[in-house]
Amino acid sequence: MQPTAFIFDLDGVLTDTAEFHYLAWKQIGADLGIEVDRELNERLKGVSRMESLERVLAAAPRPLNLSAAEKEHWATQKNLLYQELIETIRPSDRLPGIDGLLNDIRNAHMLLALGSASRNARFVLERLGLADAFDYIVDAGQIRFGKPHPETFVNAADHFGLPYETCIGVEDSAAGIAAINAAGMFSVGIGSPDALREAKYRVDDTTRLTLSGILEAYGIG
Ligand code: B16
Ligand code: MG
């Protein structure tokens, strides 16, 4: 079947905000006496802010037993740190290879959606100058179940009225790849083989991402 649409993750795919999320969680961890290293950070990618906090708290040397209000406080603090970092984003912060890939998809007359778990997605897209680049945007405000639940990706395909197996999802997180696979779509992973074992096609970074490479792996190259 010919592919009909691409659904792109935002953080860590279009731009390196995954690093900003990491820096913000590292600071929150330090404030709480919890070490947030890159291995723990892999498990924070793609999951919601509150679920990320739960995963950070689970790494505490001894249980902190925070109340719901205290958890809200730390989640808010993390977001304030993150929002300071994303103020600096500019169009030149689009990851290498992304502009070419988006153009090639457009020229091939396929639809483009964004599927992000972030409540800051629209702000980041604006800063990147990509607010008009997508036909449809799914962010955390529109869905009930975050990644690895397939809802983010299914929501985009349903909006377009497209069969799931003709959609291609692009992700940098294990949770996101699981969500794409659970939706019955073709998953493209960007990052290390360890973290993205379940991706149907994987590249190390966005410089290796080409439409022809993806379509060949999808089976119509
Ligand atoms: P926020 P994505 C995800 O965005 C991030 O990967 C994840 O690290 C973050 O916790 C989540 O958004 C929520 O973000 O705190 O800004 O609402 O990768 O799905 O674009
Ligand atoms: Mg991501």
Sum this structure up briefly:
The chain is an alpha/beta fold and 221 residues long. It contains nine helices and six strands; from the N terminus they run E-H-H-H-H-H-E-H-E-H-E-H-E-E-H. Bound molecules: 1,6-di-O-phosphono-beta-D-glucopyranose (B16) and magnesium ion.
Report what the structure shows.
The N and C termini lie close together (12 Å). Helix 1 (17-32) packs across helix 4. The longest helix is centred in the middle third of the chain and has 19 residues, at 68-86. Strand 2 (111-115), helix 6 and strand 3 form a beta-alpha-beta unit. The protein has 2 domains: 5-16 and 92-218, HAD superfamily/HAD-like (Rossmann fold), CATH 3.40.50; 18-86, Putative phosphatase, domain 2 (DNA polymerase, domain 1, Orthogonal Bundle), CATH 1.10.150.240. The radius of gyration is 17 Å and the shape is globular. The chain has a 6-stranded parallel sheet with strand order 3-2-1-4-5-6, sandwiched between helices. It has 221 residues and is of the alpha/beta class. The protein is built from 9 helices and 6 strands, in the order βαααααβαβαβαββα. It has helices spanning 17-32, 38-42, 49-57, 68-86, 98-107, 121-128, 151-160, 174-182, 211-218; strands at 5-8, 111-115, 136-138, 167-171, 186-190, 201-203. The structure holds 1,6-di-O-phosphono-beta-D-glucopyranose (B16) and magnesium ion. Magnesium ion (MG) binds next to loops.
